[in-house]
């Protein structure tokens, strides 16, 4: 198991380097450059050239990328070109907000989808099953930024119960978390249902029923525990989706997270900030996936046995 | 129930029923899948009709300041926007952007992704490793951010949007196709074909691809749905089809400024996106059940 974890960690390095190359290259292709945007209008050629050198933007693309990569390998993401501060500081200033939103949305998604999925599976092919599947399908098909806007119209503008944006206090996270959570809930409901349906057919449940265990206990004690195992895997990708999906939602609710930061960095051609943010995103995403795999092995002894072989 | 004995007529009937008609027979049984198919057909009809009926310059983008912000009424069922343009006409006309982005981008990612996946699965070894690792790199970047980066690198246009979204979903197709090839890679009939001197390309097309077909078909319909959603998010963020084209995400984004007083401007384009995505998702679900009845629960 330990060996497996170390191997996964080492495999992250080439992936991150490649990600940095792809993003750096794409940003370089983008028309318009930040030096031109930031230089005063009366700057001379020489002054602009000096600014370029100061920002580390002189030389050909391979030269520049190589310099960037050398620093990256030392763990240095460089300075933001537009804000003149270390990228890593800016990122971690904004990251807690995104993380809060991601976890909030997962809580919302679980509150909606696990009971809904169980109800659908235990009342298989009834109206309840149909209704929860329709709800899940709607959640999957709805553009999340639209849902966000509808919630703002209803709860902030018409009813005035909740703030429509910003991030002060608990109330302001409710709408963004519901918006992002609803998008995840669709998928999670369907997976809970199918995993529950599979478990319900197992022999050990028939045995439990035959022993005279009450139906409630059969479902919540015997079936749910086993059905939750595949749901854990989804938890990881849900967190990843939440981090990525947050981009549009953060814009809708003016939430001060890294999604919005990255978009504005890309738009202002701040290469180091944009590349740095995406690299950090990728690191968190890969780490979550790794954690999920480890958790998976602990929850399901069958998988742990595979690793120890 | 499997019968012990069949009459000659029954056996002939079995033979005649092709895979496609079998799938269609299963597909027809699901009302939701049929609803999805009907809505998709209607959308295509509406798109074509809108191109014929409306003129882009006079009906879609021309401003009519005297009539701005008219609430939904009989004359303008979805109201008019901040330039006095009829929202319903724009929504109907705009179907073309979402549908074309969804379909073309999936065609790109399906072609590139499935080819890579088939190659990876069939050859294995180093080739497989390189393809899979490359996919991992692109899957590590959140798709919307990758989309934004591509859009800003190559400029905003409908064509770039299709290309960007197509590229973003290549790894998904590659993995689906590869996973479908793995179980048949070591089958004896593949070996037999190799021994008898059939070329690799031919083996892939005649023996390997048919096995990978059903998961790819399902992925295609789901991919159209995802592509439409991603495209509308990009347009919503101002990085998709440039204004004044009536792309739904872009319409939502410009309607957002007037959300306080004219919320209907955000309502209808979003509803259109949802209906379209829903229809493709329902079709995808129906196809999956129809192609693999064993999976259906």
How would you describe what is shown here?
The complex is a heterodimer of chains A (309) and B (297). Chain A is an all-alpha fold and 309 residues long. Chain A has one domain: Orthogonal Bundle (MetI-like fold). In chain A, 80% of the residues lie in helices and 0% in strands. In chain A, helix 9 packs across helix 10, helix 10 runs parallel beside helix 11 and helix 11 packs antiparallel against helix 12. With 297 residues, chain B is mostly helical. The model of chain B has no long low-confidence stretch (mean pLDDT 84). In chain B, 43% of the residues are buried. Helices cover 74% and strands 0% of the residues of chain B. Chain B has a single domain, classed as MetI-like (MetI-like fold).
Please render the helix and strand layout as text.
The complex is a heterodimer of chains A (309) and B (297).
Chain A: H1 2-29, H2 34-38, H3 45-54, H4 61-73, H5 87-122, H6 127-141, H7 144-158, H8 171-200, H9 203-211, H10 215-252, H11 258-267, H12 271-299, H13 301-308
Chain B: H1 8-16, H2 19-28, H3 31-53, H4 56-60, H5 87-123, H6 125-140, H7 143-154, H8 158-168, H9 170-185, H10 188-195, H11 200-236, H12 248-256, H13 264-291
Largest sheet of chain A: none
Report helical residue fraction of chain B.
over 70%
Please estimate the helix content of chain A: over 70%
**How far from one another are the termini of chain B?**
18 Å
Mean pLDDT score of chain A, rounded?
81
- Kindly report the greatest chain-chain contact and the residue count on each side: A-B, 48 and 41 residues
Helical stretch tally of chain B: 13
Structural class of chain B: mainly alpha
| Count of the domains of chain B | 1
Low-confidence stretches of chain A: none
């Amino acid at each position: 198991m330990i060996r497996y974890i170390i191997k996964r960690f080492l495999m992250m390095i080439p992936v991150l380097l490649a990600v940095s190359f792809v993003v750096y290259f794409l940003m370089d292709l983008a028309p318009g450059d930040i030096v031109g945007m930031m230089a005063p209008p009366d700057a001379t050629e020489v002054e602009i050239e000096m600014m370029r050198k100061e920002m580390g933007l002189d030389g050909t693309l391979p030269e520049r990328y190589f310099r960037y990569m050398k620093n990256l390998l030392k763990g240095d993401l460089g300075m933001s070109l537009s804000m003149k501060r270390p990228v890593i500081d800016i990122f971690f200033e904004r990251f807690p907000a995104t993380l809060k939103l991601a976890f909030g949305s997962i809580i919302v998604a679980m509150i909606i989808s696990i009971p809904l999925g169980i109800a659908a599976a235990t009342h298989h092919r009834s109206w309840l099953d149909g209704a929860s599947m329709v709800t899940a399908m709607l959640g999957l098909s709805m553009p999340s930024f639209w849902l966000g806007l509808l919630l703002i119209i209803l709860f902030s503008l018409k009813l005035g119960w909740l703030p429509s944006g910003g991030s002060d206090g608990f109330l302001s996270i409710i709408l963004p978390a519901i918006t992002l959570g609803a998008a995840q809930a669709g998928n999670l409901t369907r997976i809970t249902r199918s995993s529950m349906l599979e478990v319900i057919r197992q022999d050990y449940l028939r045995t439990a029923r035959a022993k005279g265990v009450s139906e409630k206990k059969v479902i919540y004690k015997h079936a749910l525990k086993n059905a939750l195992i595949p749901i854990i895997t989804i938890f990881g990708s849900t967190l990843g989706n939440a981090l990525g999906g947050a981009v549009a939602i953060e814009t809708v609710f003016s939430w001060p997270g890294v999604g919005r930061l990255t978009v504005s960095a890309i738009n202002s051609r701040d290469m180091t900030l944009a590349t740095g943010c995406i690299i950090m995103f990728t690191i968190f995403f890969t780490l979550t996936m790794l954690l999920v795999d480890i958790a998976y092995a602990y929850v399901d002894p069958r998988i742990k046995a595979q690793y120890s072989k | 129930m499997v019968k012990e004995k069949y009459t000659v007529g029954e056996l002939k009937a079995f033979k005649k029923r092709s895979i496609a008609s079998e799938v269609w027979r299963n597909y027809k049984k699901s009302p939701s899948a049929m609803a999805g198919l009907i809505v998709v057909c209607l959308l295509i009809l509406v798109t074509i009709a809108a191109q014929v009926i409306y003129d882009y310059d006079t009906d879609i983008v021309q401003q009519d300041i005297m009539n701005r912000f008219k609430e939904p009424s009989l004359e303008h069922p979805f109201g008019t926007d901040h330039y006095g343009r009829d929202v319903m006409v724009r929504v109907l006309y705009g179907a073309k952007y979402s549908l074309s982005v969804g379909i073309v981008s999936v065609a790109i990612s399906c072609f590139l992704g499935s080819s890579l996946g088939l190659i990876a699965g069939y050859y294995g070894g180093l080739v497989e490793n390189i393809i899979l690792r490359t996919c991992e790199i692109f899957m590590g970047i959140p798709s919307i951010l990758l989309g934004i980066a591509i859009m800003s690198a190559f400029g905003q246009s409908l064509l770039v949007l299709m290309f960007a979204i197509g590229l973003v979903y290549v790894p998904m197709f590659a993995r689906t196709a590869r996973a479908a090839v793995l179980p048949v890679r070591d089958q004896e009939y593949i070996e037999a074909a190799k021994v008898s001197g059939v070329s690799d390309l031919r083996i892939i097309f005649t023996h390997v691809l048919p096995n990978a077909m059903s998961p790819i078909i399902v992925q295609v319909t789901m991919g159209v749905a995802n592509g439409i959603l991603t495209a509308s998010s990009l347009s919503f963020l101002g990085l998709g089809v440039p204004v004044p084209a009536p792309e739904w995400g872009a319409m939502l984004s410009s309607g957002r400024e007037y959300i306080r007083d004219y919320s209907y401007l955000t309502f209808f384009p979003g509803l259109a996106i949802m209906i379209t995505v829903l229809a493709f998702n329902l079709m995808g679900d129906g196809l999956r059940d129809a192609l693999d009845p064993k999976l259906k629960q």
